[in-house]
Write a structure and sequence with these properties.
- This protein is mainly α.
- It has one domain (about 25-145).
- The protein contains 7 helices and no strands.
- Helix 2 (about 25-40) packs antiparallel against helix 3 and helix 5 packs across helix 7.
Length: about 160
């Protein structure tokens, strides 16, 4: 019960407020899908900047895209190595020994050595993510739009009842 109230208060109520301010379920679903997909990029530390840029270019809601971007953090961690391995396979690269903690430490201690050691693999991973990004966003956006349309249509009926 507590989790349901938390989701209602922290997620659904703010989303409903955005819709009442003129954001349509379609535009919100596009922002949420784009934010989630951008949040999965295997280039650590750039998803927030990417989300701001994409939101400006495509006129998406900054709040919705950032909420989804930050919500995607667990997916970014889960998909970090698979995107890199797929990219290495596509580009015929020798697989690098990858440990995300070691990569983060190495990048913070010696950026130039990190780029020399991991650069090709990270770039290949980024390209594999880039290839998957648009279809994945489309796959996410459609059902999210349907759910938002249905949920908020039902909640409007409940709000109008005495």
């Amino acid at each position: 019960m507590f989790m349901g109230k938390l989701i209602q208060k922290r997620l659904l109520k703010p989303l409903k407020q955005l819709l009442s301010e003129g954001l349509t379920p379609k535009k919100m679903s596009e922002a949420l899908a784009a934010g989630f997909v951008l949040g999965m990029t295997p280039m650590l530390g750039i998803s927030t900047v990417l989300a701001v840029g994409i939101a400006v270019v495509f006129k998406l809601n900054q709040v919705a895209i950032q909420v989804a971007n930050w919500a995607a953090y667990p997916a970014q961690i889960i998909m970090f190595i698979p995107f890199i391995r797929i990219g290495e396979w596509v580009f015929g690269l020798e697989p690098a020994a990858i440990n995300p903690t070691d990569i983060a430490t190495m990048f913070s201690n010696d950026f130039q050595a990190s780029v020399q050691h991991y650069g090709q693999s990270l770039l290949a991973g980024w390209f594999s993510w880039l290839i998957a990004a648009v279809p994945l966003a489309m796959v996410i956006s459609w059902p999210v739009e349907k759910m938002l349309t249905k949920y908020f249509a039902q909640s409007e009926v409940r709000d109008e009842e005495p």
